[in-house]
Design brief:
The protein has helices at 7-19, 21-26, 74-81, 87-92, 102-107, 109-117; strands at 2-3, 32-38, 41-51, 54-60, 68-72, 97-99, 124-125. By secondary structure, the chain is of the alpha/beta class. It has a single domain (2-118), classed as Nonspecific Lipid-transfer Protein, Chain A (2-Layer Sandwich).
Length: 128
């Protein structure tokens, strides 16, 4: 079990992303840097770098600019991971905060949802 958004957690997430052929194939023409963090605590953050649908790198996020940033409360992250809160609904109701091109995000919304649902596949200690 990994602490949420820790180095080990995000590496396992990267592996799960790359094992998901539907996600990789659906994002073949998508490349971006993405940052995830807990609302009110940007020190707890991780990044994934995607090139042509493949997660090519991951780790603890830094102060760099990212193509996409997503953040919410720990409770909402848990609910997304447990499939009790749809990432799309969370985004549209502003429970999940988002920075980046909304046009690109909406173009890939089904894959965006799939990628966030992978959070539930990573063995996670949610205590911060």
């Amino acid at each position: 079990m990994y602490n949420f958004l820790s180095q080990d957690w995000i590496k396992d997430y990267q592996n799960k992303w790359n094992a998901n052929e539907t996600l990789k194939n659906g994002l073949k023409k998508f490349s971006a840097s993405m940052k995830y963090f807990v609302e009110g605590n940007e020190d707890i953050s991780a990044q994934v770098i995607v090139a042509d649908g493949v997660a090519i790198d991951s780790g603890i996020a830094n102060k760099n600019e990212y193509d996409f940033e997503m953040w919410t409360t720990i409770d909402n992250w848990i609910n997304i991971a447990k499939n009790e809160l749809s990432p799309k609904v969370a985004l549209l109701t502003k429970k999940l905060k988002f920075k980046g091109s909304m046009i690109v995000a909406m173009k890939h919304i089904s894959h965006f949802e799939t990628s966030l649902r992978l959070f539930g596949e990573v063995p996670t200690n949610w205590e911060l």
